[in-house]
Amino acid sequence: MKYLLTFARIFVGVLFIFSGLVKANDPLGLSYKMQEFFEIWGMGFLDNYTLAMSIGMNAFEIIAGVAVLVGWRMRLFSWLLLLLIIFFTFLTGYAALSGKVRECGCFGDCIPLTAHQSFLKDLILLVLIGFIFIYRNKIKPIMPFAGSVAVLFFSAVFSFALQWFALLHLPVVDCLPYKIGNNINEKMQIPAGAIPDSTVISFVYLKEGKEVEFTAAQFPEDFDDSLYKFVKRYDKLVRKGNAEPRIKDFSLQTYYKNDTTKALLQEDKYQLYLFLRDDYNSGSWPEELEEVIKSATLKNVKTFLVTSISIDDLYTKSVPPVFNMMLPLQCDPVVIKTIARTNPALYLIKNGTVLNKWSYADLQKALPVMLTLQANPSPAQPVADSTTSQTPVIN
Fold it and tell me: DSSP states of 109-178 as a string?
């Protein structure tokens, strides 16, 4: 019994710490996953609170995992862990059984688990935590009270500090499909060896006032147009495949709604993209960005403002002057959320490959890169393309 209890404590504690750290590395990722659940449940009014909920939940996972390992206040933490795992099991069970959520975000984007895998993981944890809960009175602290409090305190400080850093400076470990070194063009393609969905054509007919359904290989022996009235046909999913690209719905549109994604990502030239949502952060970064843009212009590097804000609206608002120095492009706000874990974020791209990226708080680090960058060849003549025509600026 003692060894089983020790194993359960170590397994649960380490897994909770690991899960909390992975999600704390990118708290916005869990926040967006919460919004996905709330949207399904018609609880969109909670969207503004998901980031705070994400930060708190990630910190609690780390702190609770440490508490289980050191055996501190197990009467309290065994209750908290039990309630938490019941809640997690409900979420992953709902996702697995309903099919409305493909990934539950248990380990963020670094270790994507399917809904069924997450549900199985939580069932195992539920059993182990239930075992810990039953024998919670037998668990003794492995260090003095002051030592346990100190360990818990520094665990809490670290968990919140890590999330603050990630929100300000981008995740420490980048697990997103737009990480440095990835080629966006390649990630928009279905991976080699991927298994497509397996479907079968199904027919629905009306017979004697009742709907009957069958496949092309299972037509009824008494089938006759006088007995069966056609209702519909559809492709029925038999087995779900994995033939999906890592990057979906990435599209860059000009002011005139022309899709220029392929043309831009195939240019063998350095490009700068500033990804911006309508709720972008304030601060001194526009002045730092202006220095970066000026340096890029000297190197013949095109700079683009990729935003979910309507281009017409963008230039009728009071915006930083540096926005006027970039070529505006439209992009879906959900896509920008995935690309830019800070708002805004600056990307250096060549031939579709992400060479570097910076948070708005780290733009001072982009300037030395631009100064040492090899200049793009000077264009022989202006190209008549809508991506090079900037919307008139209203100051």
Answer: TTS--BHHHHHHHHHHHHHHHHHHHHTGGG---SS-HHHHHHHHHHHHHHHHHHHHHHHHH--SS--STT
Alpha-carbon radius of gyration of the chain: 27
Break the chain into its structural domains and give their ranges: 2-169, 198-239, 261-388
Q: Which two tokens stand for residue 375?
A: 């200049």
The correct CATH number of 261-388 out of 1.10.275.10, 3.30.710.10, 3.50.50.60, 3.40.30.10 is: 3.40.30.10
Q: What length is written for the chain?
A: 395
Alpha helices (runs of H) in 25-114, residue ranges in sequence order:
27-40, 50-70, 74-98
pLDDT tens figures, 341-378: 999 999 999 999 999 999 999 999 999 999 999 988 87
Instruction: Judge whether residue 102 has pLDDT over 70.
Output: no
Whether the CB-CB separation of 211 and 205 falls below 8 Å is answered with yes
CA distances from 85 to 74, 121, 169, 293 (A): 15, 10, 31, 49
208 CB contacts (<8 Å, ≥6 apart)? 227
Cα–Cα distance, 333 to 277 (Å, whole number): 7
**Residue 350: closest CA among 277, 274, 273, 276:** 273
Entry pTM:
0.79
CA distances from 389 to 8, 302, 378, 386 (A): 63, 12, 18, 5
| CB 66 within 8 Å of CB 151 | yes
pLDDT at 392 over 80: no
Q: Which residues contact 159 (CB under 8 A, 6 or more apart)?
A: 20, 21, 24, 58, 59, 62, 63
Give the tokens for residue 58.
């990630």
Q: Is the peptide bond before 344 cis (omega within 30 degrees of 0)?
A: yes
Closest listed residue to residue 125, CA positions, set 72, 73, 64: 64
Q: For 227, which DSSP code?
A: T
What is the amino acid identity at position 237?
A: L
270-276 and 345-350 as β-strands: parallel, antiparallel, unpaired? antiparallel
**Cβ proximity of 345 and 339 under 8 Å:** yes
Q: Looking at residue 197, what is its pLDDT?
A: 66
Angstrom distance (rounded) from CA 39 to CA 92: 16
